[in-house]
Every structure is written in structure tokens, then in C-alpha cells.
Amino acid sequence: MLTLTNVTKNFGGLKAIQSLNLEVEEGQIHGVIGPNGAGKTTLFNLITGFAHPTSGEMFFREGDISSNKPYQIARQGIARTFQNIRLLPGMTVSESVMSGQLNQRITGWKNHSTKNIRRAKKNVDELLDFFKLSPYKETFALELPYGLQRSLEIARALATEPKLLLLDEPAAGMNEQETEMLAEDIARIRGEGCTVVVIEHDMSFIMGLCDRITVLNFGMKIADGTGDEVRNNPEVIEAYLGK
Amino acid sequence: MDIIASPALQIIVGINIIMALGLFITVSAGQFSLGHASLAGIGAYISAVLTVNLHWPFLAAVIVGALAAGIFGAIFAIPALRTRGIYLSVLTLGLGELVRVFFSTFEYTGGVAGFGGMKGTTVGIVYLTLLFCLIAVGILMRSPLGRAFQTVAADEMVAEALGLNTVRLKVLAFSLGGMMTALGGALYAHFMFFIDPHSFNYNQSVFLLIFVVFGGMESMWGVVLGTLILTLLPEYFRGLDQWRMVIYGLVLIFMMAVRPQGIITKRLLRKVGRGFAYINKRNKELWRFESNSKS
Amino acid sequence: MLQQLINGLMLGSTYALIALGYSLVFGVLGLINLAHGEIFMLGGFIGLMVVTVAQLSLPFAILGAMIGAGLIGIILELLCFRPVKRSYFLAPALSTIGFGIVVRDLMVNYVGSEPKVFPSTVQLPDFQIGSLLISSVQLLILGASLFLMVGLTLFVNRTSLGRAMRAVAENPVVAQLQGVNVARITMITFFVSALLAGAAGVFIGLRIGKLSPFIGTSVGLKALAVVIIGGLGNINGAMLAGLLVGMLEILASAYLGAAYSDAIPWTLLIIILVFRPSGLLGSKTNVDRA
Hints:
The complex is a heterotrimer of chains A (243), B (295) and C (290). Chain A has 243 residues and is α/β, with parallel strands linked by helices. Chain A is built from 9 helices and 10 strands. In chain A, strands 6-7-8-3-9-10 form a 6-stranded mixed β-sheet, with helices on both faces. Chain A starts with a strand and ends with a helix. Chain C has one domain (2-120, 130-289): ABC transporter involved in vitamin B12 uptake, BtuC. Chain C is 75% helix and 3% strand. The N and C termini of chain C lie far apart (39 Å).
């Protein structure tokens, strides 16, 4: 579904990503781990168009997305969340999720119709239900407790009806209970037909959840495989423990 | 109460609100333009030339003036796309100044001496236009396009990640906002009979921004209220007219320190809305109670 | 032509002095002080009053103007910066706009909108180098401007106060942790930037021979364009851009006419903002700060 071929990203003199080859298969939950500064968020920025590769190519469902703008990539079906939650001030929970529906056929002149708006509202309600946010429909997004804010951000990303969802450290700051619920939610998302890529630090979270894991260090891929394969990889162990 | 009856004041208030609403549209997408008065000026000059030199009918001239300003608004947006925050504001300030310099040196419209001969604005026309603008802005803000504007204003990166073409949206915000402000400008020209480049300079742009910010830029009613208060206040205290600008300045300083979101905010509107709903509910309960006890 | 360059230098040094003030406040506090132009105007009038009302000589005028402007700068900080919550990014800038309007309008009410004559109390000979005529006034102004600019650079780079200011510019939180009294430094920043503006006000009065309450807006705003052209927050950039824009403006005025020369700073600004938003000498980080 998503293929990165020999992608390199340089920022001035800094090699953020080096000759990365990555393959994400449809219907999987794919994890990306690595120590801080390994280039994980840069990877997400590249995939979603907020940064462009210095060299190499990126393909999403057979289409070349290497030089696409972020909004184009979003419309093609890749959605993301951000490391520090970026919820919009001044919006309620339902408005926040609705903002994800805005590009789905209802901002253009020709496509503006009551039927589409009704459909959009229905989608929003379904998503709120999915994440158990319905009771908070009219609350201002920033007034929610932290864990629910995270869920809201994911809900909003899903509102764009993506085929691929990128989650940037969704478990950050969560306790065990919340992390478990998050893992369940992600599994349910995959169940609805959406492929998921997750960046995380929490090893056990990733190991327990992901079908496949890619390990980055200093912008390079040092391992790629199932949880077991990665866990026993000596380079990975050194990267994490040999510091 | 004599003052309210003055048609001149009624017209000025109406025109100010129309222009402020235009800026409101642009600001709703996060574009704090300090050059909007110059767009009003473009609308004013173009419509003036059409009626005075080319003898066009009043209505057609005003509409064309506004549409032309809409195009310039889009042109303004192009360099603005590369800027954010205060840089954007200073850029629009610069663009506004360039427009002013242009009209100061353009002999066909009289240069610095100005241009005259326009008439045709009446109270009725202004308030009809105002009604139209209020309805238009109201619909816009609740529409997906308006919501898209607000998303861009809140966080551009997120807006892009949600699939919104921020470039197109920002250009639209400048264009539509410019059109409405220019509508006010054209009406102004045909009311004042005479305009010159200084009628639409940086100061006027600042006033428009103050109107929007003071009243509350989260809602259209905030803009209306803010413009009303700030335009009428110096009129009511006659002696204050001379100190009008000082008042505006002090108001701005005060508001920024105490309530920078403006007088009317979304939160306030919800509380008011909830208050009404509560009163409604209680009324219904009491009514039911009474009709029950009667039977 | 050379004469024009000298005139350009004069205008440029005025721009540079005002631009330095903008740059200082932005560099240290991340705020654009839109009342800066009015402080410059006020300094000029204070200097004028020192000379006409108090009947004192020029050096006193300059000093008085600087200190007076500095005090206004402190009031500005107390009203428009300190009480304003920084969460709303445009709020302090808008507040300074308000302050500027108040100062300007009070001045208009006080002295009228017509320009007032600024008497030249300098009775020194003029210099003639070839076909160039440089009046002693011009030389004085250039010298004083240079002195102030060098003084500021030394202050920022060599003194401990300057170091504290730079620390706050880098990161106010860390600076605070290192023991810097950020509130005090903020006030000092406004004060110093106002000092420069005040002096510039007297210089421009001397140079053109008259002073209007509106020069804060006309000259002050153009100086804002200058500072962005040079790179907000960069002291050398402000000076370089000031001189550059000043000269270009005078040249345009000579060859295209005064009305068109007004467009020069703004045209350059737009070009810079589109092609090189960080300014001639600025750094990318400052662009994100705004």
C-alpha cells in the first residue's frame, strides 16, 4: 500500500533520513520505533507531504506522492495525528470531528448539498460513538481530559475517511489503562478496513499490537520484521540499551 | 435622540459595518489584514470613475467596483501566502500603502487632489446592502467554507492535514472579504461626493481592524456591535468628537489587557443561548403547571 | 548624484536608528512595537520644546528627547506589554497600535496638525568638498547617529546587561532560570529602543527644519518596512537596510518624483517577504517567532 524507495531527507547538513526503504501492507498495523531523533516524525512529515524527500520516491497505492502537497495527500487517503496534540481552540468536540469532513465533497460549489451535509453529520456521530465521545459532543475540545483529547484527535483524522492512518506517539502520557484502550481502538480501526502506522516509544505497546515493526536509528532502518524478529535483533538491542 | 435621526450618521454607521464585515471574512481565515481600507478605496475609485466619467448606473458601478476589488484582494493574497502572523499584517500594510501611492500619483483620478462628483447613496440603499451582507456573512460562517476558514485560522498545518487547500482558502478569504469591504467603499464614495487617497489609508485600515477586534472577531455580531459602539460613541458625547482617535486608542489598549477576545465571544453566545433555552424550558414548565392546576 | 547619496545617507541613518529600536524589541521580546514611530515623533517634539521653551542648547535637546522618549517607552511597556496575556499573539501589537494612536492624537490636539518649525541652533560652518556641500548639521547628525549605533552594538555585545538581553532573546524561560530578571530586562529593552527613537526624532527635526505630529506614522512605518527588509531581530540588518532603503528612496525621489519614492520601502518589503522572508541578514528562526 505504501512504499518508500531509497528515500533520503537532508536538512542543510543534517541527514534526517538516509536511504530508507519501507513497505507498509494493506490491512496491517505497522509500528515504527527508534530512539529519540531517529527520524520517526520526519518520516511522517515526508509521507504526509509536509516535507519532501531530497531523493528517492514514495508511492501510495501505485500513485507517486513524492511531490504532493499535504492537502492532496490527505485527500488521497492518508491521515495523521501529531505528537503534541493539535486540537483547534474554540471548537467543540463535534465541530472538531466535522472539520475532518470538510473536504469530503462539501466545500466545493458544486458539491454543497443538504444530502452531503446530512451524511457528514452522520459520519461525525458514528465516529463520536466509536470513541465514546458522544456525551461530550458540545464540550469545547480543549476542555476534555487528556486521554479523550487524544481520542478526539484520532477521530478527527478518521473523519477524513482515510485508507491509511498515521499515529504519532498516540500513547504518550497515558497510563496503563488508557494505553490498553488505545490498543483496542487501533485494532478496531484496522477492523474497519483502515491500515495503521504507529510511532511509539513504548516497546510493549508496539510489540503487543503491531503485525510488523520497522526500527529506525539515526535516520536509517536497522531492522524490519515481526515483533519477535525485531526483539531478538542484536542491532536493535544495542540501539536501545547500548546508550 | 436627535442624533439618531441624522441620515448622514445612519449612513456612516451602516457603511462602517459593511466594511468591517468584509475584514471579518478575511480575519476569519486568520489573515489579519492591515491594508483592507485600500481595497475599499479600489472599490470606491472604480465605482466613482464608472458613474462620473462613464455615466454608468449607480448599482452596476458599485457592483463592478466591488468585484474589481475582489480581484485585487486575490492579488493581495498571493504574497500573503508566504507570510504568517505579524509579517502578514505588515505585508498587507505595505500593499495598502502601495495602493495609496498609486492613487496619489494617478492623474486620471486626480492624484492627491482627489476625485469628485459621485452621488446616489441613500439610507435605504445602505441598509438594504447591510442586510444583504449580514445574511451573506451569516450563511458563509455556518457553511462548510466558513468552517474551513476557521480551521485554517486555528491551525494551518492541521487544516492541510485534513485535506483543506489552504492556498485556495486564503485567496478566497482575501477576495471575498475585499469584495464586501469595497462594497462599503463604493457606497462611501457616492455618499461623500468626494474622495482622495487619504480617505483609505493605513489609519482607516487600523480603524477597521479595531472595530473587528473590539467587538469580538469570533462572531459576526461582535463585529456589528463593536462597529456600532465605536462609531456612535464619539457622536453622542459631542465634545468627544475631537478626541475620537484617543478614545479608539484607549479602547484598544484596555481591551487587549482585559479581554482580547473582544466583547462577544463564542463562549458568551453559548451562555446566552443556554440562558434563553433555560428560560424557555422554565416557562413551559410553569405554563404546564398552571394549566394542570386550573383543570 | 553624489549629493543625493549624502542625502540618502542622512535619511538612511534616521531609518537605521528607528529600525534598531524595532529590532531590539522584537529580538528580545518577540513583539513588534507599533507605537515606536510615535515615540520617535514625541522625542522630536520634546527636543523642540527643550530648545524653544526651556531655551537650552542642542545637546540638552537631544538628551532631553532621549530620556523623555525612554520614559514613554517604559509607560508603553507597563500598559501594552506587561498586562497583556501572550497567548493571543496579536494582542500586544494591537495594544501598541492603540498607544500610538493615543500619543499621536494627543499631540495633534496639543500642537495642531501643521508642522512646527525646528530651529537650528547650530552655528558652525559648512564644508565644501569638490562639488559636495555638507552642512555641519548633517555632519553632526551623521556622527551622532553613528555614535549611537556603535554604542548600541557595544552595549548589546559587551555589557552584562546586553548579555542578559540576548539571553532573554534566545529563550526567556531558560534566561529566567539562569537568574535573569526578565521583567526588568523587558523594561530596559523598551527604554533603550525608545532612547534611540527619541534621538532620531531630534535629528530629523534638525534635518528638515520642521516637525509634524504625523511623521511617526509616515517615517515610523517605513522604518518598520526597513527593519523587516534587514531581518527582524538583527541589529546589523536594521542598520544596513536603513542605509540602503534611505539611499534608494532619495534616488527615487530625485529621478521619479517625491510621490513615487514613498513606494520604495514598501515595494522592497514585498519583494523581500516573498523571496527571502528572513530579510537580508536575518535568520530563519525569527520568521517562525512572529
